[in-house]
């Protein structure tokens, strides 16, 4: 959907996604996840949540109020984009841009009257300098109204994934499970792919881009997003410790998120997540911790479930 690359005088660049849905709106229950709107506040909140979880795999995202005329129309070098600006009947500055779907006056982005809210994501280095690889998630949804993906019907699915490169060694599987925990907490069903930097080969971190379909619903949880954790029963020790910390009264996930998000410039317009979304985080965190507890009960050895990625840390401390 519609997004703009913004270039700054210091050669920095950001990916701008304008606001399309009001913060208090819940996703219509009759919409499939793949036709849900994208939310600028979800891009921002996902960055904060990912950082609070200790992953740091979402590039920095910040909210901005942008003047549609002065900061886009008057200075863009994209001549086709210029032709899509118009004044709406009530005098708001609008544009619809160039894209494959929903680029028409009916689906325009409009200021109030001139400024629009949006998310600005720091651009990763250009692909020509730092090529990335896009990986299809093994737990990808079918993106069809009638078909189910294999993972949704095969309870031994993880056994085969565990034997399939690159999930058969290193940290790739636990990284993917970290990502599913992030996605369950923010209820993002749209994680069809993830990216890595090619240069680092298979021994590298995942990049969590495209979080715009998160935080669509606070009143309901989507257990299937946790399938990688439930089916594989494996998790990083550092992740489990962080989740337990964020479940303590004095360090509650919702409180930490509220404090973190309050630093975003768009907070002056309205809090980036409603209180209902914040309390959904605490509720979902309990589910994740309980799922790991259940895994520990089902397995004989602690190490069957817990991937100790911080064994060295303990030595350093003593
Ligand atoms: N911070 C970033 N820096 C560089 N490239 C990015 C960044 N965020 C996203 N991209 C790239 O831009 C493309 C589109 O981004 P994204 O998926 O977030 O937008 P979208 O509107 O959801 O697009 P789509 O409909 O194609 O999924 C992705 O292929 C991704 O590789
Ligand atoms: Mn997308």
From TrEMBL:
<dbReference type="GO" id="GO:0005524">
    <property type="term" value="F:ATP binding"/>
</dbReference>
<keyword id="KW-0547">Nucleotide-binding</keyword>
<dbReference type="Pfam" id="PF06702">
    <property type="entry name" value="Fam20C"/>
</dbReference>
<dbReference type="GO" id="GO:0016773">
    <property type="term" value="F:phosphotransferase activity, alcohol group as acceptor"/>
</dbReference>
<keyword id="KW-0479">Metal-binding</keyword>
<protein>
    <submittedName>
        <fullName>Family with sequence similarity 20 member C, like</fullName>
    </submittedName>
</protein>
<keyword id="KW-1015">Disulfide bond</keyword>
<dbReference type="GO" id="GO:0070166">
    <property type="term" value="P:enamel mineralization"/>
</dbReference>
<feature type="binding site">
    <location>
        <position position="38"/>
    </location>
    <ligand>
        <name>Mn(2+)</name>
    </ligand>
</feature>
<comment type="similarity">
    <text>Belongs to the FAM20 family.</text>
</comment>
<dbReference type="GO" id="GO:0005794">
    <property type="term" value="C:Golgi apparatus"/>
</dbReference>
<feature type="binding site">
    <location>
        <position position="210"/>
    </location>
    <ligand>
        <name>Mn(2+)</name>
    </ligand>
</feature>
<feature type="binding site">
    <location>
        <position position="210"/>
    </location>
    <ligand>
        <name>ATP</name>
    </ligand>
</feature>
<feature type="binding site">
    <location>
        <position position="17"/>
    </location>
    <ligand>
        <name>ATP</name>
    </ligand>
</feature>
<keyword id="KW-0325">Glycoprotein</keyword>
<feature type="binding site">
    <location>
        <position position="195"/>
    </location>
    <ligand>
        <name>ATP</name>
    </ligand>
</feature>
<feature type="active site">
    <location>
        <position position="190"/>
    </location>
</feature>
<dbReference type="InterPro" id="IPR024869">
    <property type="entry name" value="FAM20"/>
</dbReference>
<feature type="binding site">
    <location>
        <begin position="121"/>
        <end position="124"/>
    </location>
    <ligand>
        <name>ATP</name>
    </ligand>
</feature>
<feature type="domain" description="FAM20 C-terminal">
    <location>
        <begin position="85"/>
        <end position="303"/>
    </location>
</feature>
<dbReference type="InterPro" id="IPR009581">
    <property type="entry name" value="FAM20_C"/>
</dbReference>
<keyword id="KW-0333">Golgi apparatus</keyword>
<dbReference type="GO" id="GO:0046872">
    <property type="term" value="F:metal ion binding"/>
</dbReference>
<keyword id="KW-0464">Manganese</keyword>
<keyword id="KW-0067">ATP-binding</keyword>
<feature type="binding site">
    <location>
        <position position="38"/>
    </location>
    <ligand>
        <name>ATP</name>
    </ligand>
</feature>
